[in-house]
Write a structure and sequence with these properties.
By secondary structure, the protein is α/β, with parallel strands linked by helices. The protein has 9 helices and 11 strands. The longest helix is centred in the first third of the chain and has 28 residues, at 59-86.
Length: 300
C-alpha cells in the first residue's frame, strides 16, 4: 500500500468522480483508476460502486476512508515534525481561539511573538468552546486559547494565564447607568443580550444570574462580541461580558459597571493535547506564552 494510493482514494471518495479527482490532482484519469484497482486488489475488497455517471463508496469503503484520512494526517504531521526538528524557527503553528479573545489577547500575543520569531507562520481558526476542545483532541490545531480553562478533561492539559472579572454592559440611558457598581440581582427585570446556545459565555451568564436568584430574560442573540455590544448600544438590552472584551474602551452609548455580587470571574489560558507532544515550533510558542503572561502577572 502506497501513500499516493491513499491520496488518490480520498480524493475520489470526496468528489465521487474519477475525472474530477484527476483534474484536481493534475494527473491522468487512467493513473488514478489503476492505483485504486491495485489498492482494492491488495485489500481484497471493493471500495467503490458505480451510481449513474458517478461512483460512491461501498460500506467497507466508507470505513476505509476514515482510516485513510487518519493515515495521511499522521504522515503529514510526521513530515512537519521532521522539518521543524531541523529548523524550529521556520515552522507553522495552528492555533484555535474563541470570539471573546479575538480582539485583544490574540493580536497582543501574536504580535509580541512575531517580534522574536518572525519566520514562524500561523494558521488561525476561530471556534466555539466545545469545538476548540475537540479540535485540540483531534490534532486539528496544536494549541487553543480558551476561557474558562477546562479542569476536568483527562485528554486536555490547561494552563491558566490570568483570571478576569465579568462586568455588566448597560445602555447609557439605563436607570442604573450612573452606579459605580451593582448587584447582578439589580438586573433581574432587564432583557439580556447573550451569545447563542453552545457558547460557554452564555452558560456562564445564565449561571451567574441563577446564582443571584433569577432566570435572565433573554431577548436577543448576538453572534459575536461586536453584535452584542451593538445591541446593547441600541438599547435592546443589557449583557454580561469579560473585562478583556472591553479592554480598550467601552462601546459608544454604553457603560461598563463592575458587579459586586455574585463574584463572576473566568480563567483564561491555553490548552494542549495530552496525547501528543507539541512540535518544536509549537513548543517555542507555548513557552513564549507562559513566560509572557508570567511577566505581566508579576508587574500587575
Amino acid at each position: 500500500m502506497e501513500l499516493r494510493q491513499l491520496i488518490y482514494f480520498v480524493e475520489v471518495a470526496e468528489r465521487e468522480h474519477v475525472s474530477a479527482a484527476a483534474e484536481h490532482l493534475h494527473i491522468a484519469q487512467s493513473a488514478i483508476s489503476r492505483q485504486i484497482a491495485r489498492l482494492e486488489e491488495e485489500l481484497s475488497v471493493q471500495l467503490f460502486e458505480r451510481v449513474g455517471r458517478n461512483i460512491q463508496l461501498t460500506p467497507i469503503g466508507r470505513i476505509f476512508l476514515i482510516h485513510a484520512k487518519t493515515a495521511i494526517k499522521a504522515i503529514d504531521y510526521a513530515k512537519l515534525q521532521i522539518d521543524e526538528y531541523l529548523d524550529p524557527e521556520q515552522g507553522s503553528i495552528k492555533i484555535g481561539f474563541p470570539t471573546s479573545l479575538a480582539n485583544h489577547l490574540l493580536p497582543t500575543v501574536i504580535s509580541a511573538f512575531r517580534e522574536e520569531q518572525p519566520n514562524i507562520s500561523f494558521h488561525l481558526s476561530q471556534g466555539s468552546y466545545a469545538s476548540l476542545i475537540k479540535s485540540v483532541k483531534n490534532n486539528e490545531v496544536g494549541l487553543a486559547f480558551l476561557g474558562p480553562v477546562p479542569a476536568d478533561d483527562s485528554l486536555i492539559k490547561g494552563d491558566i494565564l490570568f483570571t478576569e472579572n465579568m462586568s455588566a454592559l448597560l445602555p447609557i440611558r439605563h436607570p442604573l447607568a450612573d452606579r459605580p457598581s451593582l448587584r447582578l440581582s439589580d438586573l433581574r427585570k432587564d432583557s439580556f443580550v447573550l451569545l447563542p446556545d453552545g457558547f460557554v459565555l452564555r452558560k456562564m451568564a445564565i449561571e451567574a444570574c441563577k446564582q443571584a436568584g433569577f432566570d435572565p430574560i433573554i431577548s436577543s442573540i448576538g453572534e459575536d462580541m461586536d453584535s452584542i455590544k451593538g445591541l446593547v448600544s441600541a438599547g435592546i438590552g443589557v449583557s454580561l461580558l469579560p473585562d478583556s472584551t472591553l479592554h480598550e474602551s467601552t462601546p459608544r452609548l454604553t457603560v461598563r459597571i463592575p458587579i459586586e455580587t455574585p463574584d463572576v470571574k473566568r480563567s483564561v489560558g491555553i490548552i494542549t493535547s495530552k496525547t501528543r507532544d507539541l512540535s518544536p515550533s509549537e513548543k517555542v510558542f507555548y513557552q513564549f506564552i507562559i513566560d509572557f503572561y508570567s511577566v505581566l502577572e508579576r508587574y500587575k
